[in-house]
Each structure stands twice: as C-alpha cells, then as structure tokens.
Amino acid sequence: MSDMATTLALREAIDRQTDDLIRAAARQVGKLRDSPMEKSQIRNLVNVAAGTISIEAVTNFIRYQIGRDTKNKTWRSGDFGKAVIEDIETGAIPAALQAVKQSVPAADEMRARADLTALYLGYLNRCFVYAKETGDWQNLSSGAGAPEGQKT
Q1: Domain count within the chain
Q2: Which of 87, 106, 80 is nearest to 17 (CA)?
C-alpha cells in the first residue's frame, strides 16, 4: 500500500471510531455536572494533545491538573481526570486503536493513537461546552446510553 493509500485508509478507519469516541467522551463529561470546571480548562487539554504525539505528555498534563485541584472541584470531581486518563490508557482509545490497526496494519501506531486521543479530547470539549452552556447534562450524545461499540 502506498503512503497516500495508507494515509487515506487510516483516516477512514479512524473516522469509523468517531461514534464510540463521542460516547466515551460524553460519559466522562457527565461527571462534571456539579463542577465549576471552566471551558478554558478543557480547551487547554485539547491544545496539549494537538501539539504532540506523546500520550505521556497528555496524561502528564491531566495528572498535573488533578494535582492542582486541591478542593476536588474540577479534575478530581467524580474522578473525572482519572477517568479521562483511563479512557486514554486502557479504555476507549486503545479499543479504537485496535480496530484501526486491524483495518490498516501498515499505519503508524503512535500517530494513529495520537490522532484518536486528540479526537476524543476534542469531542470531550464539545460535549462539555454544550452541557455547560445549556445545562443539559443528559443528552451529551445521541447514543450516550448505548453500550460501547454499538452504533445508534
């Protein structure tokens, strides 16, 4: 497979994971219902992910934010930060990466994982902004109640 064909196949394989990533992000955002978390705090995380392919840099930033949250109101609220790290390290992101690797074995795994993580965090941001601005914490995705992997 040529580099261009691999790139296009990778993009398509990642696109097929979008619904699952949105549902995973929506589940975590729901933990912030009673939190004073601000939009800029999530946006800063999205910016970190957009600027690196290092998953360690992303999870390190989240751990730093958890450490700074000494009043348990934002990143520690409902174990939000830990749940996001779990999605990145052992949950939604590795599951999506596995599906991508099955579809495109020649794909750069580190790049694919970074792309999936950035997408997940982007959707996390969108869900949060929606909920924060509308007060609707129940309808963060059309399939928020659907089991992982099940399309709605």
Answers
A1: 1
A2: 87
